[in-house]
Amino acid sequence: MSGPRQGRLVDAYDLVIFDLDGVVYLIDEPIPGAVEAIGRLHDEGRSVSYATNNASRRAADVAELLTGMGVPAGADEVVTSAGAAAAVLAGRLAPGDRVLVVGADALRDEIGEVGLVPVGRADEEPVAVVQGYGPRVGWAELAEAALAVRAGAIWVATNTDRTLPSPRGPLPGNGSLVAVLRTALDRDPDIVVGKPAPGLFRTGAERVGASRPLVVGDRLDTDIEGAVRAGMDSLLVLTGVSDARELLGAPAERRPTFVGYDLRGLFDVDGVVRVPAGEPASGGWRVTGDGLRLDGSGSTLDALAALCAAAWSRSVAREVAPAAGSEPARAALRELGLTG
């Protein structure tokens, strides 16, 4: 952590809430160090929860996937946007009401389990449309949804993530598909259930009675903003979507408490830093000028914290391009992807 190292980050919290895609795995492949870090939490008897915007799997399926990767998990530890969307609709609609489902089978199953009737066509007169990510969603499903919403159906989106992380780079997420309907209908969804809304995080904390949870995510616009809305501390890991450049330009509602390379930062005091750095900047780094000139030397994460302190002190968040004033600074900026 910034300044004198204070001890293991995890020791300050009674629950760790993990995002999944980009934090624990990419698609179906575990991120290096993730299995070991979560296994260590289990070995120490610590509470964990998983909160995912991905509506293509049910909680039990997510738990099975994690267990198959070497991370023992139960369905009661998983909160999905599909389950949350079904619960929201069950609270607003009558049993037996029809809901047009755009998404994967998991979302359809969740709708059926709460006593609603999943349908696939607008002429079946659905009273609501629920839209979640599905790898096979296409024009036909989106067209039916548009017709149903125009006819008066409530429009619920499980989430609005523009992209999904993958080993090949970001791929279109549910937010990109929601944007298709937003363009066609010239309106926003009536309800967005998933992050950055705080509900998934609060549900995870309530299930175990946690009073001091830590949210771990890879996206500033969903995980970190959701943690801020929930009043929870957060750790941004640089294994998924958001990177150092995006972090420097983040508005106040999307700023994490800590940044780390990956989940090993939960235990490794040198693998995590509090942001922004305190004054004076820690680790021997100095940042001067409106152009964020980095001088001095120290750890790369401390350099990032010092840059955050300077960038966030500006009245308006904007694109930044730090400059190096020393060879160690050039090396740190290269490692952070802040050159070129």
TrEMBL record:
<dbReference type="InterPro" id="IPR036412">
    <property type="entry name" value="HAD-like_sf"/>
</dbReference>
<dbReference type="GO" id="GO:0016791">
    <property type="term" value="F:phosphatase activity"/>
</dbReference>
<dbReference type="GO" id="GO:0005737">
    <property type="term" value="C:cytoplasm"/>
</dbReference>
<dbReference type="Pfam" id="PF18407">
    <property type="entry name" value="GNAT_like"/>
</dbReference>
<protein>
    <submittedName>
        <fullName>Haloacid dehalogenase</fullName>
    </submittedName>
</protein>
<dbReference type="InterPro" id="IPR006357">
    <property type="entry name" value="HAD-SF_hydro_IIA"/>
</dbReference>
<dbReference type="InterPro" id="IPR041065">
    <property type="entry name" value="GNAT-like"/>
</dbReference>
<dbReference type="InterPro" id="IPR023214">
    <property type="entry name" value="HAD_sf"/>
</dbReference>
<dbReference type="Pfam" id="PF13344">
    <property type="entry name" value="Hydrolase_6"/>
</dbReference>
<dbReference type="Pfam" id="PF13242">
    <property type="entry name" value="Hydrolase_like"/>
</dbReference>
<feature type="domain" description="GCN5-related N-acetyltransferase-like">
    <location>
        <begin position="283"/>
        <end position="338"/>
    </location>
</feature>
